[in-house]
Amino acid sequence: MIEVKNLTKDFDDIKALKGVDLSVKEGSIYGLLGSNGAGKTTLLKTLAGIYKEDSGEVRIFGERIFENPTLKNRVLFIPDNIYYFAGYTINDMAEFYKSIYSTWNQERYMALQKVFNLDTNKKIIKLSKGMQRQVAIWLCLSTMPKVMILDEPLDGLDSVMRQKVKNLLIQDVANHQLTIIVSSHNLRELEDLCDHIGILHEGSIVLEKDMDDMKRDIHKIQVSFKNPLSKEIYDNLSLLYKEQRGSVYIFIARGERKDLVNHFTEFEPLLLDILPLTLEEIFTYEMGDVGYAIENIIIK
Amino acid sequence: MPLKTSLLNKGIIKNDIKRLYWFPILYTIALFFAVPLQIILRLNQFKETVPYKHIYGILDFTGGGVQHAFILIVPVLLALLLFNYLQTKKSSDMLHSLPIKRNTLFTSHTLVGFLFLTVPVIANGFITWIVQIINNLHSFYSLEDILLWAAITIVMNMVIFMITVFVGTVTGLTLVQGVLTYIMLFLPMGLLFLVVYNMQSLMYGFSWRFSLVYQDDLLMILSPFYRIIGLYSMEAKNLIGYLVLVLVLFIGGMYLYQKRRLENNMQPIVFKNLSYLFKYGVAFSFMLTAGMYFQEVGGGIAWILFGYAIASFLGYFIAEGILQKSFRIINRKTLTSYSIYMGTVILLLVGISLDFTGYEKRLPSSDEIKGVCFATNYYSYRHQEDKYLYKDPKNIQLISNAHKEIIGNRKNMKFSEKVYGENSGNLYFVYQLKNGKKITRGYEGIDLSPYMDNIKEINSSIEYKKMHYDVLNVDLSKIEKITFESHHDNISKDLVIYDSDEIEELTKLLQDEIISSNYDELRDSRVWGVVDLLLKPEPDENTNIIEATKKYDKYTKEFYESIAVTWYKSFDSIDEWLMEKGYLEEARLVKDEVEFIMVNVADSYEEADKILASMGEGRSLKITDKEKIEISLKNYANHWRYEDSPIYVVAFYNEAGDRIDYGSFYQQHVPQFIKEYFED
């Protein structure tokens, strides 16, 4: 339902996006991971119809988003740096959104006040950065969006608020078939929120993964053998990484745990330890596979 | 309602009003102070005389410039406020993520702008009208006055607002938008000035006067700034013209907004192509300014070229620095880009100096010419082009020949060199061709002596005289009276002729004298005074208006249209006629009134003043012989000049020994007996 094909975008001399392909299913939460300057914000702003595609196309529900008010009515964007009119209170802003979005839901706005627990007559400029972000999400949810595009939405929130926001988003996805694209430079932030993750590096998507598949599929195996290692061990093994520490071998391999246990038991190991990888580790190895160093991409 | 949904957004409009409602309120108050309150404050004065004077400067934009300042500042501020969101990333992202088309945003904000600028004007117009009705001021200003004032204010507000908005669609910083707006308001006129002045120094025969003098209409069209500065009223066609401009700017602005790359916000200029225009434009303007400067201070071509090089380099890199917001701008890329500019300029200059277009040598052949204006004084030509049009083939040939000589003398001149001194002068040629085209040339500060024979011959022609001496064209029946005036140091003479037969005789004599006089005679220093032909008042003329050009008759205490004729001493027939009628003594100083004269020589202009104070001292000459007095009277001029050395100072005395008049003899007019005395 969100389809990006071969999207490019130049800023004067800099190629910000070099042929991005992306696909997001309805009702899913897609995490866009990338370091600063990778092109995340550019991609998101193009997805939100703020920037015009230089080439390639962005389609949401099969339609082009740029200069498409009907579609933009249901596609909400919250930038990393949120703008509010000077001197406006939360209620003023709500009134503005109400006059702009035909799908504005006043009851929902009122109901969400209990969740966010902010004084609606307070000037937004005077709120903290985290609170301002909550207001944005609050207003955004009140327009009953179909798609939410969030640029670093959890940045600057404390852990309690972070969890609260995450829950709200997940709830909305579950209840209203909301689709969310959320960017971050921090994998851990996305780990328990997203069902898909794409890594954007230097203007291209270098990796796109289904989280469930990933967690299930990749394991870290620590093994040692009585006899020297037989070459046959590599047969039928989708190996991502290997390392030898004394007599202990460390393998990272794809495959279900059950199959991997069977595979290694055949070679009579002295020690066999099979563990699921943390997301971070998975990316480290996967990206190593693609040829990039993870440290550059995911800042911890 | 597709139009409503596509071009205007209620939410945006409502929000603009909510955010900026204070703006029209302040503007209304400001206007109230400038207009209705001014009238209210002057209410007491209205009871006194001179009806119009008391509202002077209120509804006609002449009072102190407050209203001009409003027009130049208020719309710019409003446009900056309304479109400020375009100039910062945060707000731009927010507003463009809303489900609203760019056209709709543009139209909605613009509408609010028009509303905020118009409602206060209408409100104040209304108040002014009420003030008029309550205080019964109908004879001081009318509803039409109010409506015209409102229309001009509203339209000019819209123009300035729309220019600011238009500029805003290409800039990415509010400061740049503001600065660029004022540059734009002035730019076309400024560029015209610069180009014209530079062409004058580069092209022989090009005069700035043809492009700039008496061209206020053009300049006002080119620069709204200039129009507003000198604003007092405006015609309907101008107002409509400005409304068309507003529409063009609106459509243009909308188009550029649509094309705008929001990712370039925070860049001074968001369109790459326009930033080239900006750089090269700044370089060009700097270059021409330097060229003008070095021409003014009298530098030669080398200095001008030096100025071009330095200034364009400076201008280009200043512009580049603004665009890149950086000082580190000198690199290969920018240097290449500047070289392209310089190369183009060099080509252009080479083209001009080789006269590729044939501008300097172009001279229409006599069978092409319908007529030609030819003058040594630009202003005399410009006032009445048709009046000074030579059509006589003989004169056209003479003018053409002179022009050909001027073109031929080009090679003898150094670049844009001007001569100074007695022979220095200007010549202007305006050829009206049979095909309806015009060729204009002006040569300023050239040495006129090679062309003097031609000029004298032209100026001696009847055609020339008919152009310059209205007495030759006067309708005798229109002359009511003729006055002679002759002012001397201590005695003034005036004579009035009322008799119609005498008027006719006298006028004919004057006409004959002028026709028979040659070039030099009509520029002679020996003048009795002035003869004025006072014309009968035209019945339909508005007598309330006193024009400076009219002649005041102290006898009747009335103002007359008049034709003035300089009364040269060489007009012997006039003297004879006056003598015959017995009027001579009433008209001018005669020998019988002079008992004796004193003459002395001074070496300098300053010394002449001292000598006059002590006329009898030194080796001065006293003359009592009546014949010699008569000769002296006929030859003296009533002043002295710097050029003469020695200066023959002369003073005339009456019987009582009081000085009646004084003056000097020009070198060529010193009577023989005086010359002999002093040469001994």
From TrEMBL, chain A:
Keywords: ATP-binding, Nucleotide-binding, Transport. PROSITE patterns: ABC_TRANSPORTER_2. InterPro entries: AAA+_ATPase, ABC_transporter-like_ATP-bd, ABC_Transporter_VariousFunc, P-loop_NTPase. It comes from the Bacteria. SUPFAM superfamilies: P-loop containing nucleoside triphosphate hydrolases (SSF52540). Residues 2-227 form the ABC transporter domain. GO terms for molecular function: ATP binding; ATP hydrolysis activity. PANTHER family: ABC TRANSPORTER ATP-BINDING PROTEIN ALBC-RELATED. This is ABC transporter ATP-binding protein.
From TrEMBL, chain B:
The keyword Transmembrane applies. InterPro entries: ABC-5_transporter, DUF6449. Residues 431-561 form the DUF6449 domain. The chain crosses the membrane at residues 20-41, 61-86, 106-134, 146-167, 179-199, 239-257, 277-294, 300-319, 340-359. Keywords: Membrane, Transmembrane, Transmembrane helix. This is DUF6449 domain-containing protein. It comes from Alkaliphilus pronyensis.
